[in-house]
Structure formats: structure tokens, C-alpha cells
Amino acid sequence: MAWVVPGFDLIRWWLDVWPLPALVGTSLSVALGALLVAWSLRPGIAGPRWRAMQGVLGLILAATVWDAVSFFALLALDRIESRFPVPLSLLAGALLLFLYRTMAAWGKPPISGATGRVPAPSAGASQRSRLLLWSTVGLVVLMPLLFPLAQMFCFGKTDYRRPAQVAVVLGAAVWPGNRPSHALLDRVNTGIDLYRQGLVDVLLFSGGPSDDESISHETVVMHDLAVAAGVPEEAIWLDPLGIDTQSTVDNTVAMFRERGILRVLAVSHFYHLPRIHMTYQRAGFPVYTVPAREEHILLKLPFFLAREAVALWFYYFRPLME
What is the pTM of this model? Predict the structure, then answer.
């Protein structure tokens, strides 16, 4: 919650029930978690606990629908673009409906009014209940991977570009012969596009050195690419100490505050953007994210996705471990 990590709500990062106030939304999320835990320990759908579950689920579902409608309205108005036009709130709502159905199917069967006994469930109903139960168990087991992947595709592939003062372009590998990797080239070209469109005044390239001393520093290669594309020297800033995402955020936020920068875009590949957004938000400096225009096929994309899922959880819990 926000009081655990100042400026960053650990719950609303995954389930933001905007437009409800932050305190109300967080309270509903905590209540839902408590009710789900209580149900898992003692399944049952009767009485006040079930009515409370219906009320909390109803409010959260209404918020997810509102958010999904807002997302599609922004798409229709060309305020945002998305290569994966499915809002995360829509997936969250579908998951909540699935949980509701599972609980309703697994609840206590009604008592026969004539005999006062609990009728035995039919073979078909019992089989459906078991299927729903095991589906739920499988879903819970996969959550640590599915949640980050949902963030990467739903949020990461949404382009929030708009007028800003600076675009931070995060580095990637440089190959022998000082050739930019496909990932680096895509990121730099996207930053150059933002500059040419007049959306930003400055490109800030952040990266680190290669393990091979014969290979140029990432920011040097990025700088040379931008200059060759016609970006003037005075419109290029460098952060040569951006060896990882946290370092990039720490270094650039210090530069922004020193120079009075308030509006910033962040450019990287879609799978990287949720962690970038989270880290800037936690540093008290929200940014708008722009996914790199992918002109090259990343053969290691499955590896990048898996690695990023682990990194996202690490960054999520990192302040609690410090």
C-alpha cells in the first residue's frame, strides 16, 4: 500500500479501481483479498459473507468496466495508440467474473425443502465444479507469470506519446564493430521520430558500457545514430551511468529536477515499459511511455519476456527488501 512505499500503491498497481478515490479503491481491494482468503479456507456462498463478496465484486467490476470504456474512448479519439488494444482492466474484470462463477459453483448446494436434506449433486454438476476448481488452482499457480505478461502487452504496447520536454531513450546492447543491436536501433529510431514530430525538444540517451572494452559505450553509439539522422548536438543529452533501469531513473530524475524538466516521455521495448513506469512513479516522477517501433524481429523475445517477468517482481518488492 502507499504507506508502505511512499508515493506508490502496491495494490493499485495491479488493480486500479479509478475513478473511485484512492482510499476507497485500496480498501475495496483489501476487502476482496480478505474475502477470497476466507472463502478458500472455508468455501461457502450463503449468508453475510456472500453478500459482502457480491457487493465488493460488483463495485470493482463496475470500475473495471469504466476504465475499459475510457481506454476505448481514448483510442477512438486518437489520444493513444495500441498494438494490443485490450486494456488490463478488461482482463481483470474477466478474471473477477471467473472467480465469481467458480465460487458460486463450488458453494454449498441448496437444502431440499421437502426432506430437509442436502441433495446429492449430479455427476455433471460435480464434474463442472471440479473443472472450475482445478482451473482456478492452475490460474493461481500461473499468476506470477501471467500478471507481468498482461502488463507488458496491455500497458507496454500502448503508445502514450504527447508533447513533452524530454524523451528518455534507454539503451541496449552494442555488437562488435560498434554496430547497434536491433533493439538499440529500434529504440533510437523511435526517439528520433519523436524529435522530428516536434513532440520533444531533447533526446536523453541512457545506457552503460559493454563488457568488451573494444566496443563503444551504448550512449556514444546512440548519440552518433541521432546526429547522423540530423538531430543537433544541443538537442542530445547523455546519461553514461545508466547501467540498469534503476540507475537510469535515479540519474535522469536528478537531471530533471536540476534543470526544471516536468514533462517526460520514456522509450523502450514494450516488455520493458511497465518496469520503467513503475520505477519512475516510485521515484515521484511519473512519465508517459512510448513503445519502440519494432522494425526488427527480436529472436530472443521469449527470453526477454521471461527475464522481464522476474525483473518486474524484483523491482516491485525491492523497496520492501531494503
Answer: 0.85
Q: Are 265 and 252 in contact (CB under 8 A)?
A: no
Contact yes or no for 288/265 (Cβ under 8 A): yes
Q: Which residue has the cell 488493480?
A: 15
Per domain, the residue ranges of the chain are 22-108+123-157, 160-321
Q: Give tens-digit pLDDT for 182-206.
A: 999 999 999 999 999 999 999 999 9
CATH of 160-321, picked from 3.40.140.100, 3.40.30.10, 3.40.50.620, 2.115.10.20, is 3.40.50.620
How high is the pLDDT of residue 73? 96
* Angle, alpha carbons 25-54-99 (nearest 5°): 90
Q: Which helix (H) or strand (E) segment is 264 a member of?
A: strand 264-268
Closest CA to 101 of 128, 124, 119, 126: 128
Task: Give the H/E segment covering residue 101.
Answer: helix 88-106
Side-chain half-sphere exposure of 198, counting CA atoms within 13 A: 0
